[in-house]
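Minutes, project check-in
Item: structure for the 484-residue chain
Input as provided by the requester:
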Amino acid sequence: MKIDELEIENDFFRFDSSFYELVKATPLKEPRLISFSKSACDLIGLDYSECEKKEFIDFLNGKKLLKNSTPYATVYAGHQFGHFVAQLGDGRAINLGILNGYHLQTKGSGVTRYSRQGDGRAILRSSIREYLLSEAMQGLNIPTTRALAIISSKTEVSRDWKLESCAIVLRLSPSFIRVGTFEYFARTKDAKNNILKLADLLIEQVYKDLKDKDNKYELMFFELVDRSAKLLALWQSYGFCHGVLNTDNFSVAGLTIDYGPYAFMDYFEHDYICNHTDYEGRYSYKNQPYIARWNLLVLADSLTEICNYENLKNYMKNFLPIFEKEFLSFMSKRVGLDCNKSADSNFTLIFELQNALQSSKIDYNYFFYCLTNLKSFSNINEILEFCKNPTALKSWFSKYEKVCLEQNSSFDARLEIMKKVNPKYILKNYIIEEAIKKAQNNDFSLVNDLLKIAQNPFDEHKDFERYSKPTPQQFSNIKLSCLS
């Protein structure tokens, strides 16, 4: 479809206007298209050729509205690093409405009622990071919000005592409702009625099959628990760290949302913290499943007006078992084994592998790619040469070979399993940083190259072979800020 043919629907205006603000974007100066995702265009039926037009840039920049679009920002609350903040909200994001079941939202479009002394802007480096990782997670089959396009500009704002260029990313999601949204609504004067409306909206957006079910609100919570457990299992399996898993950054659609100081671990580290402002390690790699469970318990507390709290709390007992089952199943695939054949052996093998990887200081995802292509156990030195301390991993390989024999697992059989889950390319922070530096000099070529890699991480990209190799040591497991 042409951009002028796209017609917006709205679903948030059923709420009292105290829960949102009608808002106009503050356009950036001299906007320029950096990149657009054809895959995301397909989600809303937008012709690719439209993205090359000035009208598309004006649309991202807030100067052009689609049919029936009434832009707005929403309010929510949240626990930030465990401390409750009564009012947060879309401080730099503007919601544009719904296309083909996807809510459109521009991030970095200017001040709203919820900006809290902020300038409502997103800088170029953080916008590139969100744009690329949204599509990279999709490429890895990890549930996520999506990114349609990104623009740069001549507008500048101060960050970390220096001026930086502003950008806007257009995000897509079935829902942008968060745990923090429910937290806010649960503390309003007419809490029960407001929570009912919000839960009904979420069911319309995400859990449509529950619409006519008895106890649909409890069933909604149960399904979210299941989805979140599976999501966290994928995060942990790929070594993904979110960095700021506050309740206001936790999706009630079971998606990865709000990409800030995230990271894919370079070498494996149980205690890895990717956000340098996370002084206590609340959102460390090993804590992520437990923080997700904590966030869901906060949601359960917010649903007490419309649900039986004991039922929600009892169902939460399933979260860690589901997570552990899914994690074991996926990690078994990462080493080419069938979890159903010998779960106990696989559990021990995976547990010992993580410890061996930590001791060995080998690049985490590169290890699995090498394992996928291993042709003989006599060739394990081809992998061990990338270890700082190969002793523990060498010992693990002896146990792995034994388990493979016990399960009658051949190299060819394992290859068929592993090649579907062990990508050649993972967009690590140092790679994205190279694209950011080029973009800051108005060269957006690497952003677009990385988009292709992100969306096809299992394919060959011969011109970028070096990005499939271990992260250079000086860039390994660095920590970033929320501005990154």
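Outcome recorded: The chain has 16 helices and twelve strands.
No further action items on this chain.
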